[in-house]
């Protein structure tokens, strides 16, 4: 029997009560009827972002521009470890379905990573689709990885490197791990993929059950993949779930949510990595939705998730876990 598509109301009724109210300020309740367009979605997203209070980030990141893969300037935002001493680096890749967002929007999160994991965080402002379809975003991330590996910034210590990202950023993190493996590029020691967007096919039970999911639904997903692929077929660097060989990847951590369109894609990828002899820590957060820890960061489940991520990242990079004040 085919899985039943659940209504958005039914899903929200089962979401953690600390998270459910925050859904009202996300994209899905405000989507217009009819065909979606990236330009209109960006305008809507900007309006919702303007209505949110933006935290002050201190110290402010150091913004540098390096030559991108096509010769254009690629912006990197460096958040030094507290105290300023050189530290192992985390490459952070923002979300937004490959069509929305910017590295600057994650400054507060990157500062939290730098403080919570005692690492230097480098956020890459990769180019967005549809203006820059695949492989431009993942190539920008690869260029950022090369720059980090060269340790050209005083905040970065040569040695261990981690990559992390959420949603589209999580998908790019896994795509980057595959690309670095296949090219013999800079070594990545650890990857945190948070509810990653990794499969354009939409073939799992979750894609059927949760087509009307809050925060990120099937309509948004179809628009994002169409823009990202630009009419070309997906390879495994664009859609890591398509990779036939998942051996030889760095140690992974994959987090996903019970009511997330990507849930089964993420679980299956973790299962395949383990079956191939790799290492992968998997968490499926009950009662949560896509982006839960961003829209409701003070919810207990969100605080636990971020605390776990900060601690495991520090351990993976061999730095002392900071003591909470």
Give the fraction of residues assigned to helices.
Answer: 25-40%
* Total number of strands: 8
Give the count of helical stretches.
Answer: 10
What is the average of the pLDDT values?
Answer: 96
* CATH homologous superfamily label: Alpha/Beta hydrolase fold, catalytic domain
Order of helices and strands: HHEEEHEHEHEHHEHEHH
CATH topology: Rossmann fold
What structural category arises from helix and sheet content? alpha/beta
GO molecular function, one term: hydrolase activity
Domain Alpha/beta hydrolase fold-3: 90-292
Protein name: Alpha/beta hydrolase
Organism: Antiquaquibacter soli
Break the fold down into its secondary structure elements and pairings.
Elements (H helix, E strand, L loop, with lengths): L7 H6 L24 H14 L10 E6 L5 E7 L7 E7 L13 H11 L2 E5 L11 H14 L6 E11 L1 H16 L6 E5 L10 H5 L8 H12 L21 E9 L3 H13 L4 E10 L2 H4 L4 H17 L9
Parallel strand pairs: 3-4, 3-5, 5-6, 6-7, 7-8
Antiparallel strand pairs: 1-2, 2-4
Helix pairs in contact: 4-5
Keywords:
single chain; 325 residues; alpha/beta; Rossmann fold; 8-stranded mixed beta sheet; 8 strands; 34% helix; 18% strand
